[in-house]
Design a protein that fits this description.
Blueprint (H helix, E strand, L loop, with lengths): L7 E4 L2 E4 L14 E12 L12 E7 L2 E5 L10 E10 L6 E7 L7 E8 L10 E6 L12 E11 L37 E11 L12 E7 L2 E4 L10 E10 L6 E8 L7 E9 L8 E7 L6 E10 L4 E4 L8 H10 L13 E11 L12 E7 L2 E4 L10 E10 L5 E8 L7 E9 L7 E8 L6 E14 L1 H7 L17 H30 L3 H16 L5 H18 L8 H18 L3 H11 L2 H25 L4 H20 L2 H18 L8 H8 L3 H7 L20
Antiparallel strand pairs: 1-2, 2-6, 3-6, 3-10, 4-5, 4-7, 7-8, 9-10, 11-14, 11-18, 12-13, 12-15, 15-16, 17-18, 19-23, 20-23, 20-27, 21-22, 21-24, 24-25, 26-27
Length: about 725
């Protein structure tokens, strides 16, 4: 991905220019050279698809790092790209490595050939037409076709590496830690211009792919670097998904969404069922479009609802210029999220402003004993980042990031990376901060944690965060499905994770067993005083029982836990056990990569990994829900506990005042008529949506702040030392 129109950027020693910035200047010994390339066409490229064609695209690399990727030309062995790119190169001895791939969405792209362009052999300031024969190093005798290029190499003077900026985004799954440098001139390249809201409704008359005449379909969406994968619907040709998700719209005039449908096959390669695409430039904004999309290379129709909306408050600015420090703008924002506007635009819950001040004592990632740190700030699927500070372990960024809040239960993740010319960015540390834990306007030092957020790593980062939100909107949004992250690591089979989830489930079951033993002890008269009290309570409740007493009874443990916490008796002491479990898993994660015996164990599990992952995830789901119910009553997130109290009070009053038959009748009429009233509604379970916002014990440990040395006081400013 390249923002070519925004000037020049440096990609690990190679700088990418926009078309309007191509300058040439003679120099005796220039530090930089401008390499202008026109990717014209391909000739007689290799066949990689079953239909006798390919979907080719081209990558340019120098020093193993990708600096350009062309668009994909579908179903063509003689594609015409006619794309231009300008690179600033500081080392002519490094050849330009050109690779061609066949695009297979959802699968690994097929290699179609490669070639080298040797820069030292090029004449300066002269445009050359170059034809490169593609080769496969594994099969040098195969004829893979050729590429036609136009190449111009010119000396460039007055451009230093420190003055350049990096805009390339590496969103591939193989690269977990993308690298990007940002300057003030090019900050807008990170900002999205709108939101594409997509509801995947259903498919009709799909092609049967299994021996039973049915399929297990799921859908993959891709828009640039953004990806989303739907759930699988088993054994049907007319699946109903009813899923909703959002993509960011970076291009002012729209863009394309690639959609493919797949049949899930356990233990072997999934079957391709068809593809389609959406041209967003053809859709009007602020209007919901119902699209019936026929599947190419397959059978059936996919039904979607697509809405394009303008972008909310998203910005990057310097520390000296930010909206919440302006009293007039702050007053306007407070009015926008005031109680009087609680039912206006329910998706716009609030706004969060993050000031990334500086970091201290970072890990030295380079052989020189220094690092080139930059900082990435993420909120759900929104992602922005700072510029890079070179050769510094105590960097100062002084940047302000503003995000729109769609769910007040989201977690703000701030990650520090070391930019590296020769490989992907090195991880330096990370913090995760739930929005509801933020103290507005407090400049605070956060100790950096490991990748898994289970233990400390070297360094602290200083942040100042403000959150303004509407509590009514936040409460209502709690009862709808949580937004899924569309950039996630693939699940991995882990013996330690399997054991950890088993232990979590065992703890939940042991709690239920202990409750059962306690009740049974009342029947056994182990404690006469307790048994007499229990017997009298039982007779009293049964004799006077009314339905409204059920939600009223659930209020009692909430109130009791609140009283205990208010009196200084914390009921959440069992988290130390979970912390120990996670530390063991973190150590095991590192050993998996080093210990050949563990690798052998993983290889043995690979054959049944679908079953193992299903069991592992099922244990995680069961344990998580048990822990979330406990944490609701433990007041782990006070906002959610108060919301539960409000809901239980309302339920108690309704059940007390309204006969049960009327409540059941209203519920049944709503269920039966929902599809008639809105055929494309996305059904949900409000209770499960509420519980999904309550953190499990694992998440509580991950979000817990590290205790810092008092020397790291945010108000005690240290002199910035490059070392």
């Amino acid at each position: 991905f390249l923002a070519m129109s925004l000037g020049y950027v440096s990609v690990f020693g190679i700088n990418i220019l926009g078309p309007g910035n191509a300058e040439t200047a003679p120099a005796a010994k220039p530090e930089m050279y401008q390499l202008d390339i026109i990717l014209k066409r391909g000739n007689n490229l290799a066949i990689r698809d079953r239909g006798g064609t390919s979907d080719p695209y081209v990558k340019f690399k120098i020093s193993g790092k990708e600096v350009f990727r062309s668009k994909t030309i579908n179903k063509n062995l003689n594609p015409v790209w006619d794309e231009r790119v300008s690179l600033l190169v500081d080392n002519l001895r490094e050849p330009l490595y050109i690779k061609v791939f066949d695009y297979d969405f959802g699968l690994q792209d097929d290699f179609m050939g490669s070639a080298y362009l040797y820069l030292e052999s090029l004449e300066h300031q002269r445009t050359l037409d170059v034809t490169l024969d593609l080769e496969d190093p594994q099969h040098p005798d195969h004829n893979l076709g050729s590429l036609d290029l136009g190449v111009t190499l010119s000396p460039k003077e007055g451009v230093s590496r420190e003055a350049t900026v990096l805009l390339t985004r590496s969103w591939k799954r193989s690269s977990k830690h993308p690298s990007m440098r940002l300057s003030d001139v090019h900050r807008k390249a990170q900002l999205w211009r709108g939101i594409v809201s997509i509801s995947l409704i259903e498919a009709r008359d799909l092609r049967p792919m299994d021996a039973n005449g049915l399929s297990d379909p799921y859908v993959k969406f891709r828009m640039g670097h953004q990806k989303y994968k739907s759930k699988k619907i088993p054994k049907t040709l007319n699946p109903q998904w009813r899923e909703q998700f959002d993509f960011h719209l970076y291009e002012e005039h729209g863009g394309f969404i690639d959609i493919t449908v797949w049949d899930k096959d356990a233990g072997k390669k999934d079957d391709f069922m068809g593809r389609c695409s959406i041209d967003l430039s053809q859709l009007s904004k602020e209007h919901t479009h119902k699209l019936d999309l026929p599947l190419d290379e397959g059978e059936g129709v996919l039904v979607l609802l697509v809405t394009l909306t303008g972008v909310a408050a998203v910005s990057i600015s310097d520390l000296s210029v930010n909206m919440l420090d302006d009293p007039h703008e702050r007053h306007q924002i407070l009015q926008r999220y005031g109680i009087l506007r609680s039912f206006h635009n329910l998706k716009d819950v609030g706004v969060v402003q993050v000031k990334v001040i500086r970091a201290e004592g970072l890990m030295a990632a380079d052989v020189t004993g220094k690092s080139d740190p930059f900082c990435v700030v993420e909120l759900s699927n929104d992602r922005l980042q700072t510029h890079t500070i070179y050769k510094n372990l105590n960097p100062e960024w002084n940047k302000v990031f503003t995000f729109n809040v769609k769910d007040i239960h989201s977690v703000l993740e701030v990650t520090v990376y070391d930019e590296d010319r020769d490989r992907s960015a090195d991880f330096l540390g990370k913090v995760a901060i739930p929005l509801l834990n933020i103290q507005n306007g407090e400049r605070k030092a956060y100790g950096l944690k490991s990748k898994e957020l289970t233990g400390p790593t070297k360094g602290v980062i200083f942040l100042e965060i403000d959150v303004i939100f509407n509590a009514v909107k936040a409460g209502l949004r709690t009862l709808i499905p949580i937004e899924q992250k569309y950039i996630e690591d693939e699940p991995r089979v882990s013996k330690q994770l399997l054991l950890q989830n088993f232990n979590r489930v065992r703890r939940c079951i042991l709690f239920l067993i202990n409750v059962g033993c306690y009740v049974n002890s009342c029947f056994e008269w182990d404690s006469p005083q307790r048994s007499i009290c229990a017997f009298l309570l039982f007779v009293l409740v049964v004799w006077n029982f009314e339905l409204y007493m059920i939600p009223l009874a659930l209020l009692l443990p909430l109130v009791w836990s609140y009283i205990l916490i208010a009196s200084g008796k914390d009921t959440r002491q069992d988290l130390q056990v979970m912390e120990d479990l996670l530390e063991d898993e973190d150590e095991d994660y590192d050993k998996d990569d080093k210990d050949p015996e563990r690798k052998s164990f993983i290889n043995k599990l690979y054959a049944i990994q679908d079953v193992c992952i299903s069991v592992q995830n099922a244990l995680d789901v069961v344990a998580s829900y048990g822990e979330r119910i406990k944490n609701t009553f433990n007041w782990t997130v006070p906002f959610l506990s108060w919301l539960a109290i409000a809901a239980l009070c309302v339920t108690t009053i309704l059940v007390y005042c309204i006969p049960l038959r009327y409540i059941i009748l209203a519920w049944g009429v709503n269920k039966f008529t929902k599809k008639l009233r809105d055929p494309y509604t996305i059904d949900n379970n409000e209770l499960l949506d509420f519980l999904s916002r309550v953190p499990s014990d694992v998440q509580v440990v991950q979000y817990r702040e590290l205790k810092l040395d008092l020397s790291h006081s945010p108000n005690k400013r240290k002199k910035n030392n490059p070392g």
